[in-house]
Amino acid sequence: MCAWLCRVLLVCRFVVPAAAEAFPARIRRALELLTAAPGCLGGEAGRAVDDPDRWVLTVRFASVDAYRRALSPFPVREHVVPLLSEALADEPATFETLVTASAGHADELPSLRAEN
């Protein structure tokens, strides 16, 4: 899993009509571009078991800087950013990792947010 390395998690939810046959190729291309960036730890895309019109994209990054750098290259701005703009916008999509667990053991991580 991400263990101590994953500090930023991108989670985007989509409503995709079954007739949108190009969506799987678009999300695959987005994953290829994002996971090629230094500091990207991996990503997944999937469709809801109970509602085939619902998709999710999750991508893990080592840091806030890695996340921001991954969105900078021109191919990402050309292919990924338009896709992300189609995600449901009713809640935040980028999260900091505060608890990580593996093999039955959980650890808390300090916040990346600046103290007020």
UniProtKB/TrEMBL annotation:
Residues 1-20 form the signal peptide. Residues 15-70 form the ABM domain. Pfam families: ABM (PF03992). Keywords: Monooxygenase, Oxidoreductase, Signal. InterPro entries: ABM_dom, Dimeric_a/b-barrel. GO terms for molecular function: monooxygenase activity. This is Antibiotic biosynthesis monooxygenase family protein. It comes from Pseudonocardia charpentierae. The lineage of its organism: Bacteria, Bacillati, Actinomycetota, Actinomycetes, Pseudonocardiales.
